[in-house]
Amino acid sequence: xxxxxxxxxxxxxxxxxxxxxxxxxxxxxxxxxxxxxxxxxxxxxxxxxxxxxxxxxxxxxxxxxxxxxxxxxxxxxxxxxxxxxxxxxxxxxxxxxxxxxxxxxxxxxxxxxxxxxxxxxxxxxxxxxxxxxxx
Length: 135
What we know:
CATH class of the largest domain: Alpha Beta
Shape: elongated
Oligomer: single chain
CATH architecture of the largest domain: 2-Layer Sandwich
Strand content: 15-25%
Distance between the termini: 46 Å
Number of helices: 5
Structural class: alpha+beta
């Protein structure tokens, strides 16, 4: 099993190498010096690797917790790597379709269509009231 001392003492080499923990968890040490958590698992008969994060931002205990969560998902019939990819796409899509973005796009369309300046200003004023303010 890995310890914090073993992880901190791991030095980069000419080639990437892995430091193994338990149940498929390992730390990939890159020639650049970065240390990245990975977990190996099998899903539908295929060997897969899930990327968990970088050390020291993600510590040993957190990496083990994420490994356990991934193993739980596999036992439920869910591919954790595919689920992670889908969540990332959904977050990007949700961020790109905020009310403010859609309203600005519509306002640009109104300007291109040649609406009167006073009308554009009234629309801008009304939309400014509708945007979510974060304080």
